[in-house]
Every structure is written in structure tokens, then in C-alpha cells.
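Data card: per-record layout.
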Amino acid sequence: MIKITGLLTLIGSISFAQTTSLTVTVTGINNNAGKLTAEVYNSKGTFLKSAFKTTSSSIKSNTATVVFNDLPKSDYTLMVYHDENSNGKLDKNFIGMPKEAVACSNNAKGFMGPPKFEDAKFSLVANSKITIKMNDKL
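The structure for this 138-residue chain is written out next.
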């Protein structure tokens, strides 16, 4: 009886810990120099401040694809940038505006600044694929 209870507990914990994968294809990148970096955010408070997960990819034919594995089912936003000089960060000018091309999930755009969290937010409930068109700036 103890073994059966333990087995049922294990099965129950596996079903609650379901995760998904997110495949992101970014098109419209100006050139193949450097790399594409993608950052996933899991809350409004951390949006564009502290990424939940980050990954990078090479660029071929002005397109790049990144994959995030083991993402819990939840709401997310995504920001991608073209790290042309491969220095591992989004370069900004003296007032904080991006000097490298950027884009967000839902192809959300801001007015005089970054897009709102709500405009870039999407729900991840199953393995998913999304496409983002690169912008010149946020």
C-alpha cells in the first residue's frame, strides 16, 4: 500500500510539473553579423529588466531561430535583439535608447519607448512556435 501511494504521488507531481518549449523564429534581420539574443520575461515587474531565461543563436540568411525548453505553462513576453558586435549585451546610446535592432513578442511596438508588457504578452500552454519581425528600434 505504501508503494502504491508513493507511485501515485510521483505521477501526480509529474503532471503538475509539465513544461513546454517555445521556438522563436526572427525574420528581417539587417545582416548576418554577430548573433541574435532572445530574452523571456515571466512578469510585468521584470519586463525588460531581468530576464527569466536568455539564449542566443547565429544568424543565417537574415533569419535566426532560438528554442526555449522547460518553460512552465504561463504568460510571457519576449524581447530579441541583434547583438551585431557579439559583446553579449544590448548596446544603448547615452539616453538609453537601443543602438542595435530589437523586437518584442506579438511584434508589439511602443510609442516613444518600449512596448507595454500587456501588448507583448502571450500565453504559453503547449509547445509553440512564433515568428517575430525585427524592428530597427523599440
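Known properties of this structure: Strands lie at 19-27, 35-41, 53-57, 64-72, 74-83, 102-104, 122-124, 128-133. The first helix runs from residue 2 to 16.

See the next section for split statistics.
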